[in-house]
């Protein structure tokens, strides 16, 4: 049973107790029926939540009862459910929330012509009003200013006016396009407290930092990434050249051996005069020799190109500091050299050109 909080003589208190019992009993019976015509939500779920909320209120488990009554009211709005929800919030100390819900129930009861509910709502409104705590927001002129309290927008017309608010901590935030966010937390007292919040003129937001594009490293050379790529390509090409040189060497050895064997074999080349079969062996040896010569040329060229790429790629990251120190220590007197491939009619090689 929910009792009124007004202080009154015992006889008057008993009369109000009877009135509250009648109002809440009628709410339990008529609130769902009154909303049935509106056809909003699930009537079975709304009724179940309402009854569970009333049971929890009688057990003084208000923190559990209020959400169930609120959901029941959302599913099927009714004056009786709203009155019970207001009583639940009042019991939790949410004075401003309860006051607003009693006001809404008062207007609905007048419209319905229910004098008992109207009197019940007015009694609690009169008891709550002297205890209401309020917050007043004052703001300086910032174009496009938007103020929120606990995430709820506050209209500009409400600025400078004391607004009823539940006791406790509240987050106040002010924002505007192109300005930095301003926020503060205010603690509101339980009864008849007034907190005035002065929101300053917002400061322009700092410009966004734009990352500078990566350019060439000091000294006119590209960064470490390009140099490392040239170095890697140089080693790959040089490695391939070494492999081709190996193939050329193998074919050269095979060619020399095959030709020598044919010339020494009297059955193939008696008295230095080769038979057709011997001539075929000699031709095969010459083909191997040609492959060997080409292999040597290509291999030497690849080795030279790889060496050039490695030398022109610049120092690696791990060698950068060491190379810089060496340049400072030997200004004008260092070795300057480059490797170039040398290819001729009879073979190839690698040459080093420069100043020593």
Largest sheet, if any? 4 strands, antiparallel
Helix-strand string: HHHHHHEEEEEEEHHHEE
The count of β-strands is 9
How many individual helices? Answer: 9
Report how far apart the termini are: 108 Å
Q: Class by helix and strand content?
A: alpha+beta
| Chain-averaged pLDDT | 75
What is the 3D form?
rod-shaped
Give the spatial strand order of the biggest sheet.
3-2-5-6
Uncertain segments are: 1-39, 217-224, 326-356
Query: What Rg do the Cα atoms give?
Result: 49 Å
Helix content: 40-55%
How much of the sequence lies in strands comes to 15-25%
Structure explained in plain terms:
The strands form 3 sheets. A 4-stranded antiparallel β-sheet has the order 3-2-5-6, with no helix packed on it. The model is unreliable at 1-39, 217-224 and 326-356 (pLDDT under 50). By secondary structure, the protein is an alpha+beta fold. α4 packs antiparallel against α5 (95-112). The chain has helices at 10-36, 43-58, 62-75, 79-91, 95-112, 115-128, 224-264, 276-312, 320-329, and strands at 133-139, 146-149, 152-154, 163-165, 168-175, 182-188, 194-199, 336-344, 347-355.
């Amino acid at each position: 049973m929910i009792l009124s909080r007004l202080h009154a003589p015992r006889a008057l208190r008993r009369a109000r107790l009877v009135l509250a019992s009648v109002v809440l009993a009628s709410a339990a019976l008529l609130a769902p029926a009154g909303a049935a015509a509106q056809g909003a939500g699930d009537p079975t779920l709304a009724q179940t939540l309402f009854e569970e909320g009333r049971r929890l209120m009688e057990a003084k488990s208000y923190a559990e009862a209020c959400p169930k009554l609120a959901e029941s009211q959302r599913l099927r709005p009714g004056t009786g459910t709203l009155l019970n929800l207001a009583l639940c919030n009042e019991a939790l100390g949410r004075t401003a929330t309860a006051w607003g819900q009693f006001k809404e129930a008062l207007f609905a009861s007048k419209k319905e012509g229910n004098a008992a509910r109207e009197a019940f709502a007015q009694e609690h409104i009169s008891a709550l009003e002297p205890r209401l705590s309020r917050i007043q927001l004052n703001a300086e002129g910032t174009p496009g200013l938007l103020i929120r309290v606990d995430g709820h927008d506050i209209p500009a017309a409400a600025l400078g006016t004391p607004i009823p608010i539940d006791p406790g901590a509240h987050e106040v935030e002010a924002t505007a396009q192109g300005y930095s966010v301003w926020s503060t937390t205010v603690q509101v007292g339980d009864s008849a407290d007034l907190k005035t919040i002065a929101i300053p003129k917002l400061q322009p937001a700092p410009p966004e930092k734009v990352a500078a594009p990566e350019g060439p490293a000091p000294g006119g050379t590209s960064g470490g990434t390009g140099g490392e790529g040239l170095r890697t390509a140089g080693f790959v090409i040089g490695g391939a050249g070494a492999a081709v040189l190996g193939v050329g060497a193998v074919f050269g050895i095979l060619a020399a051996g095959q030709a020598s064997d044919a010339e020494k074999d009297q059955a193939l080349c008696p008295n230095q005069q080769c038979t057709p079969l011997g001539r075929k062996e000699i031709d095969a040896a010459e083909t191997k020799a040609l492959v060997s010569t080409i292999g040597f040329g290509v291999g030497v060229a690849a080795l030279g190109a790889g060496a050039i790429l490695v030398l022109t790629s610049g120092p690696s990251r791990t060698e950068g500091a060491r190379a810089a120190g060496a340049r400072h220590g030997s200004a004008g007197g260092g070795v300057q050299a480059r490797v170039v491939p040398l290819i001729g009619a009879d073979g190839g090689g690698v040459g080093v050109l420069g100043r020593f």
